Structures are given as structure tokens and as C-alpha cells.
Amino acid sequence: MSLPPRVTPRAFERLSEIGAAEQGKALRVAVEGGGCSGFQYQIELDDPAEGDLVLEGEGEKVVVDEVSLPFLGGAVIDFSEELVGSRFTIDNPNAASSCGCGVSFSM
After folding, report:
1. What residues does the Core domain cover (predicted)?
2. Which CATH superfamily includes the segment(s) 6-95?
3. Which in 56, 82, 96, 100 has the greatest CB count within 10 A?
């Protein structure tokens, strides 16, 4: 079994800023087929579900479903703010390559 994904304090801080927990929501990080490299990340505010891995910090939650978990082992979920915009990012050691926008990857 590989390491579980981890979430940076900056990502939890951003979830707190947008009030995810106050809305009863968690940040869901999932992997699905598609994108220009074969797999793509789906990141959204959602309700935690039975069977999800729940990562908690600063009163906030990030959840990963059982199907996506093998693809995200050891990944780091972060939040990035740049001049061109801000977004949640995933540094995934399992990805053999990724597209330029960082949304899709291959294994």
C-alpha cells in the first residue's frame, strides 16, 4: 500500500477562507479517465461519502474516493496563487507525465 495523499496547510487555509466546512462541504479530489494525457483530476466542493478517505486540518476536510486513491498515493494537494489565477494543485509522484495545464496526467 502506498502512502496516502497529504494536504498542505495552505490548501486547508484556502478551504477555510471560502467557508467549505461552514457549508458542510469538503474538497473532493478524484481521478477520472479523460483529458489530453489519459487521466484527469476532478476537484470540487462536495459532501463526504461513505468509503471516502478523509484528510482533516484546520476544521476543514479533503476527501478522496476509494477508486481514485490508488492514483493519488503519496500526492500533495496544495493551493497556488499566481498572477494568472489561483487554484488547487496536485503534485502526484505516480504521474509519468502531465499536460501543460496540470489537469491531466498519464501513468
Report:
1. 7-102
2. HesB-like domain (2.60.300.12)
3. 56
